[in-house]
Amino acid sequence: MPGSGKTYRIAVIAGDGIGLEVMPEGLRCLEAAAEKYGFKWNFEHSDFASCVYYEKHGEMLPKNWVEILKPFDAIYFGAVGDPRRYPDHIRLWRSLLQFRRQFDQYVNLRPVRLISCVKSPLALRDPGNDKIDYWVVRENTEGEYSEVGGRMFSGTDRELVTQQTIMTRTGVDRILDYAFKLAQSRPRKMLTSARISITMPYWDERVAEKSKQFPDVKVEKYIDILCAHFVARPHTFDVVVGSNLFGDILSDLGPATTGTIGIAPSGNINPTGEWPSLFEPLIWSGQMMLLHLGETKAAESIMNAIDLVLGRANTSEITPDLGGKAKTQALGAAIEKAIREGN
Question: What predicted TM-score, i.e. pTM, was given to this entire model?
Answer without folding.
Answer: 0.91
